[in-house]
Amino acid sequence: MSTIRALESAMEQIAPTRFAAEWDNVGLLVGDRDAKLERALLTIDLWPEVYEEARALGADAVIAYHPPIFKPVARVLPGSIAFDAVRDKIAIYSPHTALDAATGGTNDVLADAVGISPTDRRGLDPPAPKDRAFKLVTFVPEDSVDKVADALFAAGAGRIGDYSRCSFRLRGTGTFFGDPASTSPVVGESGRLETVDEARLEVLVPIAKLDAVLAAHRRAHPYETPAFDLVRIATPPEHMGFGRVGPLETPAPLTDVLARLKHALSVDHLLVAGPTDRLVRTAAVGAGATGELLGAALKANVDLFVLGEMRHHDALRAATQSTTVVMTLHSNSERATLKTLRDRLATLLPSVSLHVSARDRDPFTVR
Hints:
Blueprint: E1 2-3, H1 4-14, E2 27-30, E3 36-37, E4 39-43, H2 48-57, E5 61-64, H3 81-88, E6 91-94, H4 96-101, H5 106-114, E7 122-125, E8 130-141, H6 145-154, E9 168-177, E10 193-206, H7 210-220, E11 228-235, E12 242-253, H8 254-265, E13 271-273, E14 279-289, H9 294-299, E15 304-309, H10 312-320, E16 324-327, H11 337-348, E17 353-356
Parallel strand pairs: 4-5, 4-17, 5-6, 14-15, 15-16
Antiparallel strand pairs: 1-3, 2-6, 7-12, 8-10, 8-11, 9-10, 12-14, 13-16
């Protein structure tokens, strides 16, 4: 028997919650991690009719792409989805922007629908590398290197993952000439060129521990004026970010791309602005309300930008710059990912019966 905790773990593999936008509310929103999980329903929006579908199915969990609890709530009362879910012991998990950023997630599914090359695509709004730590490089007399290293480790340096007391050491020769009037070197004499057998000692220092480590370094180092370097270490992004951009696997007339998109998203109509008689060679996509990515799409000089929705003036801006914009309506740009997500979860949770909602739909219809 599987559990809600297993679902949480599986979703963390597919769409790590750390990938989500800072403003988002993702992960397990309602539920007991130790409760059983036999059936789950996947949906974009947790409408009341979708919730009734989950109850009729006997679902133990709903994977709702959009978080039904988004902002902090002061009360959970009858009539709210959260109240009903707690009462009925139905867990709710929401991946939202974590799934957008993840490889194989919402934006990759939309890029596949457009025909963007899987091998040549990149993030339309890639995250910047984040400062993670400093590397402290210091030069210590060989007979003092263990003492200095121990002091640095005790102050919080030298940890890599689950390993502690990590360092790199290289033997070499240091030289110095001390001013006779102002120096009292520990090794050798002032007023003459000295050479010393030294070790180059390197350790990683977490940003939060930097002041403590530098203080420990100064206390433990035998030299009057220790020489050291600090190198800022940045962590490469773990994902491509939001949106996707790249060349089509095969350039195609816009009419063919639109037909392929309609089929992939199971929609009959699309909103199109800008040139309509063109060959599409490059395209960008952004699932949901991603009009803020238009600038990046224009900078990439794409022929086509497909997204859920954007503002009127942004559509005019794109059209005047000869970029064709296609809007699918918000959730229509996201819904195709549910089947892909179901298939991926089925591999990780083989004992769980997974169902895509038949009642989930975009709130807008075209008449």
